[in-house]
Amino acid sequence: MSDTERLVRFRLLDEDFAFYTGISEEEMAEILALVRERFEDGGSLPRGTVPANKVAMLACLRMASDYLRLEKEFTAYRQTMRSHLSKMTDEIEGLFKEGV
Fold first, then answer.
1. Mean pLDDT across the stretch 34-60?
2. d(CA 28, CA 62)
């Protein structure tokens, strides 16, 4: 453990968790809010007799799926923006060449 790490404790799915992290309290609160939303408010996750570790795995898989989808969307967005910027740059250079 480094000097910048601190112990974080929380409860999720009726289980207590504790670990050391260097993440700020604000970031940790945001992360826990997202995880709790996925587990506790994510109505499509199985409940009842399904073991907590399986529910956790399903939630992790969904988060990974969301991450990959967002990564693909961002890559497509970045490519679109680069294309637009390139066209705008060409148009501006054309205006300067024309002496406008």
1. 74
2. 20
Is it the case that residue 57 has pLDDT exceeding 60? yes
pLDDT for 42 equals: 55
Instruction: Please give the share of the chain, as a percent, with pLDDT higher than 70.
Output: 88
Domain locations along the chain:
6-98
> Which residue's structure tokens are 């910027």?
85
Tell me how far apart the alpha carbons of residues 33 and 61 are, in angstroms, rounded to a whole number: 17
| Nearest alpha-carbon partner for 23 in 12, 39, 37, 34 | 34
Eight-state DSSP code of residue 45? S
**What tokens appear for 13 in the block?**
């799915």
Average pLDDT over every residue of 41-48: 60
In a 13 Å sphere around the CA of 72, the CA atoms on its Cβ side amount to: 6
Q: Crossing angle for the helix pair 52-98 and 25-40, nearest 10 degrees?
A: 120
11: Cβ contacts below 8 Å, ≥ 6 apart: 17
